[in-house]
Amino acid sequence: MTAAAGHTPTPTPSARVPGVEVMAVPENIGANEPTGIPGSAVSTLPAALWRERAAEHRRRIDELLDTHPPRLPDGSPHPVWSFLFTYYSFRRAALRTWHPGFGVVLCDAADYVSRRGYRRVAGTTDDIAVTVDVSMLRRRRDLLAYVHRLLSATAARPARLHCFGLHEWAMVYRTAEVRHDSVPLRLGSAGTDEVVESLPLRCTHFDAFRFFTDEAAPRNELPLEREGQIASEQPGCVHAGMDLYKWATKLSPLLPAELVADAFALALDLRELDMKASPYDLRDHGLEPIAIETTAGRAAYAREQERLAGRAAELRDGLLTACDALMAAE
């Protein structure tokens, strides 16, 4: 498996995480179970350091959740932010849980002994040292390969910035059923249909396209299928950027929690752009619309899409680097 063009793997965790110490691997580490870590050293985090990082991670996630609540005060789903917990199905508690990533031993970590995917490390001076089990890496082998192929192919293409978020409009085209029935359509049904009919549909993301109405699907520039996702995905796509969060969560706890948090923060910003440009009137929820039915609105959307695509490119590269290291370790 080769990395994307221009993609250079970063150093091992012990070389890039401040405060990490390195210890020799005892001969009986893992009670005859191989560590899955290349070489003869394991990165270790003393309790004071990893607990500080874990607390900072929780503070960051809690702040993001406080400002982007998945539910309204009455307990009903938020029309904007609940999507990131229903569609991606990564629970709040899981998001708040800190993980060091594969190949790192946590000292004095009794709380992690019973966590899924972890095991105790035998033969160390710390009798409650733990690490992510190599069996977790083995079970994710096929997923790792797929994510690497998808992200590499996406990164190798130029960003397309002329879709203008019309996928949300295509999902309610010529239908009385809307996906967010708690908020009104900004232009009404007839006005929404008129916008779809006046602008070309250029969706490149299958998981958005599959929700198009039957009348909207044939209007798309290209027919999309699941089998062709690797061939069609492109880095300007808002949903491709949001899906970086999906891939990060599916690879947890092999990845450092900070990388998952970065993906979540980006997904929130991409979701905001997505819904500002949607046909829904979300002003009561603090989102001023981007009127993509106008020339000025389309220009504003493309500018913000380009800015967020730049952030997504950096995160995509980080995930590719992590996949490179994990596949090398496995």
SSE layout:
Layout: H1 13-16, E1 21-24, E2 41-45, H2 47-67, H3 83-86, H4 92-96, E3 104-106, E4 118-120, E5 130-132, H5 134-139, H6 141-155, H7 167-170, H8 188-198, H9 206-209, H10 229-232, H11 238-250, H12 257-276, H13 295-329
Parallel strand pairs: 2-3
Antiparallel strand pairs: 1-2, 3-5, 4-5
Helix pairs in contact: 2-12, 6-13, 11-12, 11-13, 12-13
Question: What do these coordinates show?
Answer:
With 330 residues, this protein is mainly alpha-helical. The chain has one domain (13-329). 44% of the residues lie in helices and 5% in strands. It has helices at 13-16, 47-67, 83-86, 92-96, 134-139, 141-155, 167-170, 188-198, 206-209, 229-232, 238-250, 257-276, 295-329, and strands at 21-24, 41-45, 104-106, 118-120, 130-132. The chain has a five-stranded mixed sheet. Helix 6 crosses helix 13 (295-329), helix 11 packs antiparallel against helix 12 (257-276) and helix 12 (257-276) packs antiparallel against helix 13 (295-329). The longest helix has 35 residues, at 295-329. It is globular, with a radius of gyration of 22 Å. The two termini are 13 Å apart. This is 3-methyladenine DNA glycosylase. It comes from Gordonia jinhuaensis.
Summarize the structure.
It comes from Gordonia jinhuaensis. This protein is mainly alpha-helical and 330 residues long. The chain contains 13 helices and five strands.
Characteristic key phrases:
44% helix, globular, single chain, 3-methyladenine DNA glycosylase, 330 residues, mainly alpha
The secondary-structure element order is HEEHHHEEEHHHHHHHHH
Structural class comes to mainly alpha
How far the N terminus sits from the C terminus, by CA atoms, comes to 13 Å
Number of helices: 13
- The strand order across the widest sheet is 1-2-3-5-4
Count of folded domains: 1
Q: Note the overall shape.
A: globular
Overall mean confidence score, pLDDT: 87
**Poorly predicted runs:** 1-41
* Total E-strand runs: 5
In angstroms, what is the radius of gyration?
A: 22 Å
> What is the percent of helical residues?
40-55%
